[in-house]
Amino acid sequence: MPDPKPATIRPTDDDARATARGLLSAARFGALGVIDPETGGPAVSRVAVARDADGQPMTLISDLSHHSQALRADPACSLLVGEPGDRGDPLVHPRLTLLCRAIFVARADAAHDRLRALYLAQQPKARLYIDFGDFRLVRLAIADARLNGGFGQAYRLTADDLGG
Amino acid sequence: MPDPKPATIRPTDDDARATARGLLSAARFGALGVIDPETGGPAVSRVAVARDADGQPMTLISDLSHHSQALRADPACSLLVGEPGDRGDPLVHPRLTLLCRAIFVARADAAHDRLRALYLAQQPKARLYIDFGDFRLVRLAIADARLNGGFGQAYRLTADDLGG
Questions:
Q1: What are the distances in angstroms from CA B137 to CA A43, B24, B48, B113, B114?
Q2: Which residues pair with B62 in a beta bridge?
Q3: DSSP letter (8 states) at residue A161
Q4: Which of A59, A147, B25, B120 could form a disulfide with A47 if both were Cys (CB 3.0 to 4.6 A apart)?
Q5: Residue B164 pLDDT > 60, yes or no?
Q6: Percent of chain B scored above 90 by pLDDT?
Q7: For residue A149, which residues of chain B lie inside 8 Å, CB to CB?
């Protein structure tokens, strides 16, 4: 029996790119998957999401969190964005899986203040804690992306497909 | 400097247990983290969620999906449940990270038909595809759980804390 997988991935077209960019640009939060240093297995937690000037995702996390400690040990991570509505089958709603590498942004980094301003423009309530000593901006550099536009509508995208 | 981590985890109490059980019992979908066999890193995707008679989570996935292939290779996984509303800081909403082991339920398994009925009672639209040859019920056996009840409200829970 032939491997059925290739047939399930559709060729990437402009509609798929537009859907994926739309999901990323609308995301206020996402589900971040990391390798848990305690177990070596995956752990998923919620993070807030904003975008840099190129439309690439970033987040703001506390050093006290599990995911922060995990990303310090292994920067490979994954971000799921695209929320279903309250009704119907949750699987008909499009969503985007990003495979990423986390890059912590030091406060001394030349880009820090610009990213901080962009972050606060998108997550204004974070003003309450963004300057706490344990909070860090983290860029999520996209290595690969998978769009699921609904049943049978799977696409594979590159960082360029998602580029601003 | 002392390790600040222990102080950030609160003692598990009945309120924490009730919040965690409530998040799990209300979940129609969740974010599933797996180890991606292509990269060895984490990958997060959306899955539908239902509960068995003991309140433990289960899902229904296609053999054609990335997460199904990943779970066949490595059953360690993580499920995030608890959706924020549309307003305010998404991080103030409680959410629950489950560390799980995936157990595929064969159609020949004695428990299959009972689980299928429970699944459909909670996800009635899945009737359209639950009997497709590539779809499998998968139990997500909880090994460990982390409740984040909002800023500074972190708890660690066991499977027993989440028991029906």
A1: 21, 18, 11, 10, 11
A2: B135
A3: G
A4: A59
A5: no
A6: 84
A7: none
A-to-B residue pairs, Cβ atoms closer than 8 angstroms: 140
Distance CA A125, CA A122 (A): 9
Segments in chain A below pLDDT 70: 1-7, 164
ipTM: 0.94
* C-alpha to C-alpha distance for A24 and A17, rounded to whole angstroms: 11
pTM for the whole structure: 0.94
A6 to chain B, closest Cα gap in Å = 10
User: In angstroms, rounded to a whole number, what is the distance separating the alpha carbons of residues A57 and A55?
Assistant: 6
> With an 8 Å Cβ cutoff, are B31 and A44 in contact?
yes
User: What is the C-alpha separation between B96 and B161, in angstroms, rounded?
Assistant: 12
- A154 phi/psi in degrees, rounded to 5: -105, 135
CB B31 within 8 A of CB B48: no
Residue B147 has pLDDT above 90, yes or no: yes
Taking CA atoms, what residue in A is nearest to B69?
Answer: A5
* Token pair belonging to A105: 């942004």
* Locus of tokens 């606060």: A120
Which residues does A72 contact at the CB level (< 8 Å), separation at least 6? A104
The sign of the CA dihedral A141, A139, A73, B77 is negative
pLDDT attached to residue A157: 95
Contacts of B29 in chain A (CB under 8 A): 84, 90-91
| Chain A residues inside the 8 Å CB shell of B4 | 64
Long-range contacts of B121-124 (CB under 8 A, 24+ apart): B121/B50, B122/B28, B122/B50, B122/B51, B123/A89, B123/B28, B123/B48, B123/B50, B123/B60
User: Using a CB-CB distance cutoff of 8 angstroms, which residues of chain A are in contact with residue B97?
Assistant: 43-45, 66
